[in-house]
## 1
Amino acid sequence: MRSIRIFTQMTKANLKALMSFKIDFLVSFFAGLLSQTIGILFLSVLFMNIPSVAGWNVYQIGILYGYIFFAEGILTLSFQGTFGLTNQVRNGTLDQYLLRPLPISTQIYGQRTNLAGLGTSMTGLTVIVYSILKLDMVLPIWKFILLIVSLILGAVIRVNINFAFNSISVWLEGASGIGGTVYSLQELAKYPIDIYPRAFQVMLLSLFPFAAISYVPTAVILDKKESLFFIILPIVTVVIVILRKIIFGLALKAYEGAGN
Amino acid sequence: MKSFWRRYSGFARCAMEKKLAYRNAFIIGWMSNLAGILVSIFLWRVLFLEHSSIQGYNWDQMILYALIVAMLNATLSFRTEMNLSEKILDGSIVSDLTKPIDFQNMSFFQALGESAIEGGISICIISVLAFLLTDLGVYLTLVNTLLFIVSLILAFLLKFCFSYISGLICFYTSNGYGVVYLRQVITDVFSGALMPLTFFPAWFQKLSGVLPFQASVYLPTQIFLGRISDIEMLYTLLLQLGWVIVMWIFAKLFFSIAVKKITIHGG
């Protein structure tokens, strides 16, 4: 509870700082919208030339895109501090968080707010809603709840993946790029994982569980998998949160600080 | 000519050494490109199981297209452009302006030095992938390869102009990332980096035909894939050369106007 209050306070302070540069505020919001246009363009141009990919049509794949955009947007919007971890280890500025009587992970979460994320996640939601309308689907109430729950759990997974892999940079003496490489793996989850070899499918549901964010809920909503398949999502969420806690705990022990 | 080379080659050498010092970062960065390449390989693999050719491309041609685009994208990267915009935004460009050199030439040689390393690594990775995935040998005839190299050099010059111009826009705005994003969307779409231009609707193909961007990605790929006839070859290369000259001069003019925006405090 206290963590949430602190996080809200930090976000408020960040927003005030952002608001003082009004033009930049708008530019980053639109940059967020823009950054996803390439992906959507690729999808629509591709489907002008082919009818389906592994039995999925353009709107069905659109939902996968939407889930990935939404989770990425939430990460960028409110939890961008997890990206900064690598730099903080390199510069030794992580020290200041260790000294305060507040939860360290909360401080890292609330460190930065980036409005580009709002543009990205809104794009994600729009793409999902538009696709569902175009598919002429009537969602029964349980699927609607499932949609909302999976969006939230997806964002939780996304933030924790980022946090966990950026924590690993402590052992790599601040070698950046690991975060970026993992980040780019989400591209794989924008398509039905049936197109990948079995090893990749397993990897995308376990070690780098991006497919749990997009493929698992979408396949259930579209009746491509039985509803029991959905169970993977909460399991992955719990596992990744626990793993993240363990990795971050170990990372803090290994962190050597800025000297003195 | 000799003094010109002596004056500017130092910048290229310097940029190269800097890049080499951070080679691990670059190689790790390359792994992120691999994810994108993997997606397109698997996506096209599934599609080519169902279709024998899509818009006149077969599996080999499609994969080679995607790989050449990836190679071009990794050379003269995002970083080059950000360097310039950061220089403008934090004001350190002033120290370059006091040197008795041409700023555009200097930036070009710095980009050349960085790209020599980036390009070298990229060509190695891409060649291995191309060799494993496609019947590469068919496309590597002597004449074809030479023409491709000429076309690549022209494409590189053009890519430099685009990055340089978008970097210069930072004289007018303080949001470097926003400008670079926008530039990326425009060039990715119109250059054919997203997908071969023939996949787009006809009106779009007409539009991109009259814009300079296709000369930086699409034309080199078409030369490599042997999709340009002998008669059109000269025209294609001249078109690339023409755009390089136009964009280079435009960049010079733009700089001379934009540089007046500098406000120097103190002194």
## 2
Amino acid sequence: MRVTPHRHSLRCARGGLLAAALTAIVSAGAAPDAQPAAVTVSAAVSLTDALTAVAERYGNEARGSVRFNFGASNTLARQIVNGAPADIFVSADEAQMDVVAAAGLLKDGTRFDLLTNQLAVVVPNDRPRTFKSVREIADPAFKRIAIGDPAAVPSGVYARQYLQQEGLWDAIAARVVPTSSVRAALAAVESGAADAAIVYRTDARVALRATVAWVVSADRGPRIRYPAAILKSADAAAAQRFLDYLRSDAAARIFERFGFARAAAPAAR
Amino acid sequence: MDLWRITWFTVLCAVAATLLVLPPAVVVAWLLARRRFPGRALVETIISLPLVMPPVATGLILLMLFGRRGAIGRLLERIGVDVVFTWKAVVLAMAIMGLPLLVRTARAGFEQVNERYEAVAATLGASPARIFLTISLPLAWPSVLGGAVLAFARALGEFGATIVVAGSIPGATRTLSVAIYTYAETGRDTQALALLLVSTAIAFAALFAANRLVERRAA
């Protein structure tokens, strides 16, 4: 019988915990009413470091808070089309922004090209190389070449387009390791699992264990554009504020520090 | 057709993984059931780890061990064996993830074997190995088999560790679950759905068989 009160108190404690947890959940849900809601940005994973830095500054200037969902643009586009909550979408290619546009989810007139980028070939830094020509990627020493899945991941789509144009795709197609995102391709080289990867020049910059073997010049390579737009479901005013900030000179300086270039003519569509 | 090639490859790898872990798992299960040895609790815990750890973390550990920069991978590279991003990595990931299920189920089977039979055999002069092979193992066999089917079913569905250590290379390392993920990610919904149906059917059959085997043992 001595067990019973103990059990009872345990149950009470559990009940109390549950109640506390529920209160916490409920109040967490209610909290956004008290202070301005954070803007949720679904952005291409290649922008991880640069956008995080921009948002940090945005927060430090007390302009508002930003939450990110970084991923391969094709993944993000599918999430948004399937109803994932987001206020702003920044894609690494036009095609994935078109997917969201085709679903009628973009706020009219808010789409514009934010940034440009270039492709680069990276190799593990314990086997550094510098290409004289991109043809060197066909070297049999590269047994596995990681690129974003060329079926949809923007970096992979760009990479295939570029290598096809250079007449090299068929030579390496069998050695391609398709990855779920550009950062996964970079990670494959950094872990030593792949011998080379085609990523963005900006990814190579934040790499710790990979070095650049070749940078695809802007005039020879594919036209890489990062379109940004506000989604229809967004808290329009807050989203517009952050989007405007992304186009500011302060943001541009941060983007440039990470190797991105501002898209020349910010043509709104 | 892609669908059947992927299915066949996945089943083959899962069979290979199950056969690979079956002998060591049976021995370990029997040791855990019948012997008291130092570090027993530790062995038990380590073997069960893949059951509760995030599969991606398990995959990462395998990648760190078997990658070109890893402790085991470096040795294997010297003898010209590549594991990461090959079918061997698929089998490895599947084997590690299936191991705990096999060991735990087989161990329960060995524990249910009446110790008197083993004791009687011992008094009649049978060696431990002979007792194991002619008494313990045959009596625990349905559980061992049930555990093997469970491990096989788990191997079929393995995703987290596989995607990390083997990737998703079409025609080389792409298994059912990885293909479903890749197809869904890249907008090929029809293919994803077809593979989903196939994997559901196989998993259903495997689990059904495992349950029947374990039930028959219990009855």
## 3
Amino acid sequence: MRIFILVNLWAIALLMGARSAAAATDNTDSTYRLGSGYTVGETGLSIGGYANTELDVPRSTPWNFTLSDLSLFMTWDNGSRLHFFSELEAGDVLNVGNHQSLGAQNAHFEFERFYLDSLVNNNLTVRLGKFLTPIGEWNLIHAAPLVWTTSRPVVTENLFSPHASGLMLHGSVPVVSRQLEYSVFADLTESIDPYRSSNPFQNALGAHLRYFFSDTLQIGASVADYTLSDLQSAQIGSSFTHIALSNLQSSRYYLVGLNLAWSYKKFELSSEFVYRTSDHAAIASTLQGFVQGVVPISQRWFMVGRYEYFEQQLNKAGQVGLLGLAYRPLPPIVWKLEYRRGEHNELLAPDGLSASFSILF
Amino acid sequence: MTMRIAYALLVVILFAGFPTHAAEPLAVITAVTNPLDTLSLDALKLIYLRKSQMDTESNRWIPLNLPVADPLRRGFSLALFSILPEEQDDYWNVQYFNGISPPKVMASEEAILRFVASTTGSIGYVRKQSVDSRVKVLLLITPPTAK
């Protein structure tokens, strides 16, 4: 536990320094502000990122504490039609657990995102590079300081690759006086990304639409047609499954999804469902999804509840309920505590307690 | 006599709770060289959310804000989004994650006037009475009384 205390002391020191900097000035973009990064003069270059520390205490396996994410954003936007963005992530930087002494043996680095946007006109931008797969909403904002729970809903990463590398056309158009946002992507990870993230696409085509019915309600829909490179992590994560499914790697998947987000004051309701089928008779069609609600209990404290349903290849359909608390002393900082319990959920979302501290810096 | 004093006090208390006059109009301004002459409130909203990136001449919009505590900024935010600037923090956190910065913050109305006058694509707001020949007014908005 000492390392937990040390990491959090470091975070508090960082926070106090940043708070005083933020309080001191709000009138130039070259000063550092917590949650906004640092802009380097008039160069158009900005640097920032986020960090997340996580403590997991599953009911049937040993506890584990990790500095799970340390991400560095680099943005370049000098006011021209081009806009560059990259996110370099150090994952599992430090680990300590019941049967594991403190170490960095699981640490790994990767570019989570690395792309160039070219603004064609007000309704169309062309993106080239590696980006987050536009399926649902959670995957697009999955950073720990932006979401309400330490654990990620199964549906947001289990059935498709969270990253895509290739080309994306995105933008928005007015429809009935409201904005319709669209993204259409073609993935060629196998050919152009030598440092593939876990569970990568081999190739994919997909699209996501999001319509703003009002300032507080948005509904989205996703479609994708793809092949996965790595069925091990895509399916269950067990070696048994890997062997059983390794001959199905060329299977093509077809996915449709729906997502909804509603907010009023500080109340929130969100939901995502995905249905995936394949051209291989041995791979059953799969439905997964969640419904999540957030209720403010004071200015800075929030209660979170979530229900998840996920069909699996080699097990009965899993269900999980989650109850959590989140404390946001400042918008870029969040402390979370949650308990998760369910059935047929041992592999994808095991019962147990999780806590985390995350910060956008 | 006592009744009169009580009545006068009641009137004072009641009027203290309500604005006695509308807030001063804000002028949304751009450079005089910008071919645009008017702008709708919805279009302005998209520009300040950084969702609309280009003007009709394909110049990048550069929206400008005053500091968060400035009453004009607070009134502008209420008029445009019906919320105060600090209530947009969650939105800007998500945009930050996607590499999109919020509007540039300028120190004063004069700083906005100078920047707008000299920078193509920039757009800002000042009090109507502060507008001069260096800039062009696209829209007048009357902010509700700041919270």
## 4
Amino acid sequence: MEDIEEIEMSGREIPKIGVYICWCGINIGGVVDVPKLCEYAETLPNVTFGKEYKFMCSDIGQSMIMDDIKEGTINRVVVASCSPRMHELTFRRACREAGLNQFLFEQANIREHCTWVTMDDVPGATKIAKDHIRMAIAKAQKLKPLKVLKVKVEPATLVVGAGIAGINAALDLGNSGYKVYLVEKTPTVGGHMAQLDKTFPTMDCSSCITTPKMSEVARNPNVELLTYSTVESLTGYVGNFQARIKKNPHYIDQKLCTGCGSCAESCPIECPNEFDLGMKPKKAAYLSFPQAVPGQYTIDMNHCIRCGICEEVCPTGAIRYDDKPEYIDITIGTIILATGYDPYDATRMKQYGFGIYPNVVTALQMERLLSSFGPTGGKVRRPSDLKEPETIVFIQCVGSREFTGKGRKYCSRVCCMYATKQARSYKEKHPKAKIYIFYIDIRAFGKGYEEFYNDAGKNYGIVFIRGRVSEVYETEDHNIVVRAEDTLIQRQLELEVDLLVLSIGLEPRSDIDDIARIFNVTATKTEDGFLMEAHPKLRPVDTLTDGIFVAGTVVGPKDIPDTVSQAKAAASSAATLMARGEVEIEPYYSTVLDFRCAGCKSCIGLCPYKAITFNELKKIAVINEILCKGCGTCVAACPSKAIVQNHFGDDQINPIIETAILKKINKREVKVE
Amino acid sequence: MVFDPYILGIFCNWCSYAGADGAGTSRMQRPANLRILRVMCGGRVDPQFVVNALMNGADGVLVSHCHPGDCHYIEGNLKTVRKMPILHLYLKQFGINPKRAKYIYVSASEGIKLTETIKEYVEEIEELGPNPITGGF
């Protein structure tokens, strides 16, 4: 591809524009008359011909363009088809392969902005299509050949979040030989998966499959684990990001700590335990859970009273009350965001009594209760009197599929299966227990899920009742009464049970806005609050910011298999960039015309990238083309029009505006509004 | 002859253009009055583009870019927003209703909002009537 010699172009030659109009099957061709558009295009100045084809993006479509370029009949290409965000690169590549400078191509969007939004209005769509084609041709007249800038890609990745997604991505990249910085906010890796008891539908013990991965990622020589750390700021661009990472103080020297646990044993302070979701206190000097990686202790300074007992008992003298946060600066080529989710806050659904009645727990708390290293040692006991429940009710879709505004509109995808799993898991230990699951629909969509659900009803005797619970209240002995309608047999039900489990959904993290802001991916936040993929089907792990990828529940609710597949996809996408070693950057940078610059310095303060400096000798502004990202803010602001931007210059945009509007101007009849 | 407003949209590549693509992909129908010109950033929108469009007979110009804080280029959008009041003042002095130049924020996921805004703006312009510079229709 690199061998192709580029046809010499100065940008001043007479444009010979080839216009190619795509039918896009019936997407465009079914609304507007494509052959007529071709005829129309041929009437416009400097257009050599207008051609049409069913799918311009196909190989045949592309070779149409390439053949015409090679024959020398055209030196500018306009394709009227879909959005340039979709296929600009495809057609640019075709131009390049035929020897034409790729920036002598312009795309007119007659699908997303035309036929798809005015499907029933054929004359309207035709009018817009003509306008868009005319605008693209106007720009094509003024296009100039440009040289792409190439920058080196630093062979290192920053993975944010060390849940199962982050761990898998880090391992894949580390094993491929790339340097990985794995940043985790909490003192241990593992994320939510480490909290789970079992995984559906195989009933694998969750920690048995997570902990080996956790220690593997800690051992991998290419992975630098930065736990209890956060990313403070990010600058740079694809291939060359600079991140500042804040390592929070552990108040225990992590190098000296052997993880013996004497500090926690002797610590007199008990404080809320995030890992066990408040069901068992932790000491102020703590290890999140026994299998935590890394296995060093941390002091929770929000609760520590600095009594000094741990300092006395620590055999290695590792306690540091005056520990300070540490900042490290790293340079990375790619970034993977795997920051995960927050469980839905069930106190918002007041009708279910969570936070009011002791025996109403969330499903994540149920996971901890079921877990062998949980607060009750694997024996499920209800919080009020530590009795093992004989009857349990699960309420599905708590905070999901909720259109009243208290919850989220989407389906959280995992609740049907984890409730079934928890019910089965409890039934295995207590075959006589009665378990009811109130659902709206059971969504058992994955591999082996439907069988798992079917089995739960048939062989485990778990009762699935279709109906949303209307009321929950407590009896004197803290039993929970659940009122609902079984909508299949249309009968009112009232059940008195020992324990009520709320199948809470998955929500975007509460700090998702900060994450999005730091990594400059805010523009890609979807309505539901999760981050958005660059393309929901074809670029599921890319963001709109080059070099930043996403994996796992940061994009939306998903189960563990999907999360792991995404993590591996993100790792492979990051590796693809790094393996190539360099990336091409669109050369949309601006330059200062020194003979016009008056040296007013207006542009310098406006540049968000500090790319403009002032030449004191010549008294003019100078733009560094590598630092310049091509936003064009300075171009719009320069009072003497001394700054020109590549590809989006005033001399390119103004002709578009002028030719776009075909209105006769009658200056004599101008009335003041 | 029925008045068919000519509206030129100047959209930033990262938020609003993507939002308009999203509206298209979701087939959200809107009146056929808007043509979209793509620039990389809202900051690139020189007020002269708006004036130029109005001088050439556009009935309305819709400038759309990222929400504050969401700009792909950190804050280019805000730089343009600050030029807005003076442009409106300028248009007024020259006898053009400032409503003919509208600035909006549309993110990549706000296809619905964009479609609604376009519908409203078309109605607004229909009420205003044709750009006086064209001498009617």
